[in-house]
Amino acid sequence: MKIFSAAQIREADAFTIAHEPISSSGLMERAAGKCAAWLEDHYSPVHPVYIFCGKGNNGGDGLVIARLLLDHGYTVRTGILQYSPKASADQELKLQALQEHYSSTVYDIGDISDFPALPANAIIIDAIFGTGMSRPIEGWTAGIIHLINDQRQKHVIISVDMPSGLMADESNRHTAVVQAHYTLSFEFYKLAFLLRENAPYAGEVHILPIGLHPDYITQTPARYHLSDREIMRTIYRPRDPFAHKGTYGHALLIAGSYGKMGAAILSARACLRAGAGLLSCHVPQCGYDIMQISEPCAMCITDEDPRYNTHFHQDITNTNYKAIGIGPGLDTQPGTAKSFEHLLSGWQRPMVIDADALNLISVYPFLLARIPAGSILTPHPKEFERLFGPSANDTARLDLLSKQAVSLQIYIILKGRYTAIACPDGAVYFNNTGNPGMATGGSGDVLTGILTGLLSQDYSPKAAVLLGVWLHGYAGDLAAAHLSQEAMTATDIISWLGKAFQEGI
Ligand SMILES: NC(=O)C1=CN([C@@H]2O[C@H](COP(=O)(O)OP(=O)(O)OC[C@H]3O[C@@H](n4cnc5c(N)ncnc54)[C@H](O)[C@@H]3O)[C@@H](O)[C@H]2O)[C@@H](O)CC1
Ligand SMILES: [K+]
After folding, report:
1. CB 3.0 to 4.6 Å from 201: which of 159, 163, 486, 496, for a disulfide?
2. For 172-231, what is the HEC assignment?
3. Which residues line ligand 1 (CB under 6 A)?
């Protein structure tokens, strides 16, 4: 799914109005109608509804919602924030329509003293500002936003399209922003919902389709995308009935050290479960028995070093490897750094670089330029900062992420609630599967294994990244559903990977 900017959403509205038999007023009826239907599905008329409307089209939506709910027997009070004498044409039209039958339910708000006393089971609808937000909310209007937020413990707050005060395309810098429990947003995810800094505002986001013109959506390029099942279906390739184990590639994982062999095992298992044809694991001598006993499906190569991987570059004389994954539990010994440097000068194909391999690159930044094009880096925010420096906020970090992916011609997976995947062509995909139960040791090692396994099957790096991150999160969601977010471990993500292939695509 494409994520459009506020300016593009305005264009999509205009395009739809120009190419379909629908007016802007009609489109507003449709959008607000979707919100009213959602509200009716979730709340019965025993809940009095308090709607706060602005003077633009977001306010217009609120006025239509008020009329529709009143038509259906709800008790509604609609306050119009008079922060400006001017209203948009559609807002005026919808106000007239509401006043025609329900004028006694509408009142003006010109100061914080006009904020109503809310009965116990009231619901608050925030229709003050939407995607037209262009500057911080000030004065008593900001005061009303704060008063709405003060109700958060007692009343459900539902924002229409955007939490008022939040800018659609960036991290929040302002203080007066509605903190909604739910946001009912039209047609598209907004970038703002996907940024960690904006977590307190949108609550649970529900995207309501309002029939914006499909031609605009397909023809208009977007920089940001949300990964979805549709994308996965175009990527996933069922296995060839005539396949043999050589068909799906020979993967090499360079992982583990004394005390961190678990990371190597997790990666190896995930790599095999992601479908690699053959897997060799390069481990220190101390890891030989552990690997052979824990994962009989993997082959094992032991390093000259008893505790660390320091001679793995020699492995790549076997050029039959389809993919290399390096990093889980690797440690950052000087010998490991040297061997990594040699590996990078001898290996030209995309590889997966994670954990301590990323830490080595941050200690020896000259290695960055040697990463083969198309490789996949999987930093969490701290590792990202060590690699590429700090950022002032989430939007700046996103720009830096994309810039680095383009200049190094690699894929960078910045892990988080909505993991961001930056591609060498400048596109950024946000992943929507996964849950906080995956914030546990070993989750990242599992991802590295999955990505290496997919690369070894000849998925392109872009396909491997999108599919791998999606499946990893999906398997985590299945694990959490069966075991709870607390009790699930990284091992469970691997256990549910099979079901994720079956149900997640
Ligand atoms: N255009 C369309 O056809 C549709 C628009 N829809 C609604 O229209 C909304 C966008 O409407 P608008 O573009 O009118 O904008 P908004 O209703 O979000 O904002 C109203 C106006 O307030 C002013 N403003 C911005 N920031 C302010 C601030 N901090 N303090 C005071 N004034 C401020 C701006 O001039 C802006 O145009 C969407 O979010 C959505 O809710 C929906 O009805 C769907 C259809
Ligand atoms: K709003």
Report:
1. 163
2. CCCCCCCCCCEEEEECCCCHHHHCHHHHHHHCEEEEECCCCCHHHHHHCCCCEEECCHHH
3. 13, 24, 27-28, 31, 54, 56-59, 61, 83, 88, 129-137, 160-162, 186
What's the total number of domains in the chain?
Answer: 2
**Ligand 1 pocket, mutate which of 131, 172, 177, 208 (most atoms under 8 A from CB):** 131
| Whether residue 187 is found in the same domain as residue 284 | no
Average predicted confidence (pLDDT) for the chain: 97
Query: Do residue 281 and residue 386 come from a single domain?
Result: yes
Report the separation in Å between the CA atom of 419 and the middle of ligand 2, taken as the mean of its atom positions. 26
Read off the CATH number of the domain in which 68 is found.
Answer: 3.40.50.10260
ipTM for this model: 0.96
The per-residue pLDDT for range 236-256, each reduced to its tens digit, is 999 999 988 888 999 999 999
Q: For residue 146, give its domain range.
A: 2-221
Distance 57 CA to ligand 1 centre (A): 5
pTM for this model (two decimals): 0.94
Q: From the CA of 145, how far away is ligand 2's center (Å)? A: 11
Q: What is the pLDDT of residues 251-272, one digit of tens each?
A: 999 999 999 999 999 999 999 9
Looking at the structure, do residues 157 and 268 belong to the same domain, yes or no?
Answer: no
| Cα of 269 vs its chain's centroid, Å | 26
Whether the predicted pLDDT of 315 surpasses 90: no
